[in-house]
Write a structure and sequence with these properties.
Elements: E1 14-16, E2 29-35, H1 54-62, E3 64-66, E4 69-70, H2 75-84, H3 113-119, E5 123-129, E6 148-152, E7 163-166, E8 175-178, E9 181-184, E10 187-190, H4 199-213, E11 221-226, H5 243-246, H6 255-280, E12 287-293, E13 318-319, E14 323-324, H7 328-335, H8 352-356, E15 366-372, E16 377-382, E17 385-389, E18 407-411, H9 429-445
Parallel strand pairs: 2-11, 2-12, 3-13, 4-14, 5-6, 5-11
Antiparallel strand pairs: 1-3, 1-12, 6-9, 7-8, 9-10, 15-16, 16-17, 17-18
Length: 499
């Protein structure tokens, strides 16, 4: 999960639309595939000559590439926006990620995407990574709208032994515990029997089983398939892939990069198998398939993902309309036959008419990439321009080398790689002021980030060596009265923090 804001533009969604969703007789099934920290240039359809992604390439050729789709730089904020349709600055989840020992999650007064779809007659299931709260059972997926959940709660998990390495900030030593669970309804179960099995294959098999067993005549299906790939497995052995898959990429000389390429290929195979399961049930033509990444990849340093970030100019079926991750909830809700007026006060826009070509005017003109009031990190895209404020010098830290200056203004249309900083250019001072005005608007809407202290009761040693709910109290504790970074055990941007 990259922390620095340069990764914000580097997500690569693909959407494939099946039968016309305006049909009142048949609601479309929805398969939403979310990868974790995938680099922009780490798919074939963006021109990579190393990474082999035939399934995603075919989806790109048959569907729509969303070239101006933005997410946030970290897992929890991005997934919060996806599930709520709201920007996390309005919820209090804009800062960093939920840590293993924090009593934190999306507040229970917020309705999530599967709950909205269930109201329209859908049956919802989830496979893969959650990372939206698990300290109390009401925050786990099957209490937030999903009929079943097979996956893990926290930020990352070993692909083979399914343990999570959790550095609860301010606590020693590092915790290790199982983080693989199979939940149905109110029954929560830890899965100890899958040791040695590659998680991507486990997740694909579970997703295929859901499709095979689902009664499509009775209810449409919403399947949220949130893969680990290509996120770090742990800090000891970061990039993980089966040996037999690594053997296929002997032409990649760097050992870690070879593992990364193999990891991405396993992701592509998993997507292929799940899509093939829809085809076998003869429902693919009435299924909306979305592939996206929650944020971009880090080529080096933090997380050691070895992703590549260079945009490519390959010609495809491309939409250049501005879109933000929070737009998926209203877009899919309308595609399912819902009236977006029923969604209340959300920040997302329905992009359905734009994607279907019924409306050439995009409703979104700006995307707040984030505001972190703790460390004064800010970024926004308005029209073709992007503003970044980053007061930290990360060149000598564990992060990769991207930032050119503490304050940046870029013309994204003419400089997509962000080489030319216009912040001091006299011709762009009005642009800078406009961007700052829009940031000020959002700063007026933001709420204080929730950063509750760590709780020793979350230690997996107290719970059969597994991470999971550890309290019956659903209340998110308040921040410490002295909300300085030191008092709240916040991450050290010059070092390594918890994931």
């Amino acid at each position: 999960m990259p922390v620095h804001l340069s990764q914000l533009v580097l997500v690569l969604p693909v959407i494939t639309l099946g039968l016309p969703v305006e049909s009142e007789k048949v609601k479309p099934n929805i398969l939403f595939v979310l990868s974790d920290d995938l680099g922009w240039n780490d798919v074939g359809f963006h021109g990579s000559k190393q990474v082999h992604t035939p399934t995603l390439d075919r989806m790109a050729n048959e569907g729509i590439i969303l070239n101006n789709h933005y997410a946030l730089a970290l897992c929890t904020p991005s997934r919060t926006a996806l599930m709520t349709g709201r920007h996390p600055v309005t919820i209090g989840l804009q800062y960093y990620v939920i840590q293993a020992a924090q009593r934190l999650g999306i507040p229970l007064n917020h309705k999530l995407l599967p709950e909205y779809l269930n109201d329209l007659g859908y049956e919802s299931h989830m496979v893969g990574k959650w990372h939206l709260g698990n300290f109390q059972r009401n925050y786990t997926p099957t209490f937030r709208g999903f009929n079943s959940f097979f996956g893990y709660y926290l930020g990352f998990s070993d692909y083979f032994d399914h343990r999570t390495q959790a550095a609860a900030l301010g606590m020693d030593p590092v915790w290790w515990g199982l983080d693989l669970h199979f939940n149905e309804g109110e029954l929560l179960r830890d899965v100890y029997s899958a040791f040695g099995e590659y998680s991507t294959k486990l997740f694909a098999n579970r997703a295929s089983d859901i499709i095979a067993q689902h009664d499509f005549d009775a209810k449409p299906l919403f399947l949220y398939f949130a893969l680990s790939n290509p996120h770090t497995g742990n800090n000891v052995d970061p990039v993980q892939a089966p040996w037999e898959t690594q053997f296929l990429f002997q032409n990649v000389w760097h050992n870690v990069r070879r593992k990364y390429v193999a990891n991405v290929y396993e992701m592509d195979v998993a997507v292929r198998n799940v899509v093939n399961s829809l085809q076998m049930r003869r429902v693919l033509n009435n299924t909306i398939v979305v592939f996206a990444s929650d944020n971009g990849g880090v080529p080096n340093g933090y997380s050691n993902n070895w992703g590549k970030q260079l945009p490519s100019a390959r010609s495809q079926r491309v939409s250049n309309d501005l879109m933000f991750v929070s737009d998926w909830l209203p877009t899919l809700y309308e595609a399912a036959g819902g009236d977006v007026k029923n969604l209340g006060d959300i920040d997302g826009y329905s992009m359905l008419d734009v994607l279907l070509g019924n409306n050439k005017t995009c409703p979104r003109t700006e995307a707040l990439l984030n505001i972190d009031p703790v460390y004064n990190l800010k970024a926004i895209r308005v029209g073709q321009y992007k503003y970044i404020l980053n007061p930290f010098d990360l060149h000598d830290s564990s992060y990769d080398y991207w930032f050119q200056a503490p304050e940046c203004v870029y013309d994204i249309e003419n400089d997509p790689c962000e080489y030319y900083n216009l912040v001091d250019d006299p011709d762009y001072q009005e642009v800078k002021e406009m961007l700052l005005e829009r940031l000020a608007y959002w700063e007026g809407k933001q709420v204080e980030p929730m950063i509750p202290p760590n709780d020793e009761k979350a230690n997996p040693k107290l719970h059969n060596m597994a991470f999971g709910p550890w309290t019956n109290d659903p209340v998110i504790p308040p921040n410490p009265s002295n909300n300085s970074p030191e008092s709240m055990n916040l991450i050290d941007l010059d070092g390594m923090g918890s994931m």
